[in-house]
Amino acid sequence: MNVEQLVRETLQEEAAASGTARGDLADRVLTARRRRNRRGAAGAVAVAAALVAAAVTVPELGDDAEAASPASESITGDVVAHPDQSPPRDMVAAGGTAVSGYFTSRTVKQPGGDELFTRHYTVLDQKAGRYKALDTKWAWVDVAPGMRTAAVLEGELPARRIGMLDLITGKVERWIPVERPVAGVEWSPDGKRLVATAYSKNPDRLIDRSGDHPANGAQPHGSRTGFYLVDAGSGEVGPFRKLRQPPPSTEWSGYDGNPREDVDWSHDGTKLYVEQLKPSNGKSDSRAWYTTSGAKTTAPAGERFGGWSRAGLSPDGKLVASDGDSGGSRLVDPRTGKKVGLVPGMQPLAWADNKRLITIGCDPKKCSGKNEFRNQLLLVTVGSKKAVPLSGFRKASSDYLGRWVPLTAAR
Fold it and tell me: So where does this one cross the membrane (predicted)?
């Protein structure tokens, strides 16, 4: 079987199975491929794999949108950096990972004594290849692998429907209703599913409890009720799985956990976890693990030692990027948890490939721990102390209102 036949049959089989891709998708891909003169079996198989994923996660588009080419396809450099931009205005990427967007946040006082934590999202506009601010009505945004689609929730949270926002057209192409309101959604690593966390109240709202005790004021609360798994291709919502937060420790002291405890995916998408506060004895995992049916389970073998690091396990499964500080981030053996290396950066965000990490950190040559909040996006390499700046510096204040928090996704 030749390469073009392999690509054509792979895509046609996927289209038949999912019902989301047009039947002539393979022919259009191969025609475009011949125009670009891309040769080699490995390249064709990679094109097939990428488009299979796209056929699952991207909503049906109109004729104009269908003809549009995502900007991220033309921005192909291995390292795309803008060290003079903070926050970045143009696409930032390294290896197989890009900055899909960022958000800024602030706490707004509400009538009656409550306080509302709000996020304002900016994401990659696939038409322009630049970051574009979204409408402030979106209280939660998560960008899918491939950066063609974002799952969005309207505020005030929790919301009773999930929007599929097309990042080429800028329009919501489909709404997925849920019976119980949700306040967080996260894409699976393969971009085929979403996990949506349900809450009875807005986890981002601090509730005024000054009537309970004079020292209380606006306090967090635990209102998570469970989660749904959603098939991104069909929009089918799975059964509701109960997963409640623990009650307050005393009658008047309020909730002593995290108000937002969203459900997220393991590295391979086979298990789910929730971030949890580490007990003072330090013996507990920083994540509570569950099966996709909501039953308690153990951490995957390669993810027991990642701490709160977003990067976690490397693509080849040989290293875990763990929590860091101004002195750098530890690299540990996923089998034993033993430290095997150290790279610059305080917050490992994502692996660019098996040997490089995108992280937040200060300049290794100037990082003394005294100015840790004046940091930037860096690309660091295993076995090296060198750090390549990807963005400009964020201001040196942890509560600066314009301080941007980067989001990443597979290219």
Answer: 40-58
Total domains in the chain come to 2
The helix (H) or strand (E) run that includes residue 119 is: strand 115-125
404, 90, 310, 290 alpha-carbon torsion, rounded to 10° = 100
20 lies in the same domain as 85? no
Same domain? For 17 and 105 the reply is no
For residue 11, give its domain range. 3-57
What is the distance in angstroms between the CA of the first residue and the CA of the last residue of the chain?
29
User: How do strand 130-133 and strand 138-143 relate by DSSP bridges?
Assistant: unpaired
For residue 405, the tally of other CB atoms under 10 A from its CB is 16
d(CA 158, CA 201): 6
In a domain, 69, yes or no: no
Count CB-CB contacts under 10 A for residue 334: 22
User: Do 34 and 93 reside in the same domain of the chain?
Assistant: no
Tokens standing for 394? 């964020």
DSSP codes, 72-112 = HHH---SEE--TT-SS-SB--EETTEEEEEEEEEEEEE-GG
Q: How far apart are CA 11 and CA 25, in angstroms?
A: 7
Nearest in space to 25 (alpha carbons), one of 61, 76, 71: 61
What is the number of other CB atoms lying within 10 angstroms of the CB of residue 332? 20
- The whole-model pTM stands at 0.79
Specify the residue for token string 């306080």. Answer: 115
Verify that 11 and 93 share a domain, yes or no: no
User: Distance (Å, rounded) from C-alpha 359 to C-alpha 84?
Assistant: 17
In a domain, 62, yes or no: no
71, part of any domain = no
Instruction: Give the integer Cα–Cα distance in Å for 343 and 331.
Output: 7
Q: Is residue 68 part of a domain?
A: no
User: Which residue carries 């020292």 as its tokens?
Assistant: 215
Indicate the Cα dihedral angle 288, 263, 313, 346, nearest 10°: -90
**CA separation for the pair 172, 180 (Å, rounded):** 21
CA neighbor of 96 nearest in space, from 111, 108, 80: 80
Q: Give, for 29, the enclosing helix (H) or strand (E).
A: helix 25-36
Contact 221, 208 (CB under 8 A): no
Reported as a single tens digit per residue, the pLDDT across 149-171 is 999 999 999 999 999 999 999 99
Q: What is the pLDDT of residues 221-268, one digit of tens each?
A: 889 999 999 999 999 999 999 998 866 555 445 566 678 999 999 999
- pLDDT tens digits along 172-183: 999 999 999 999
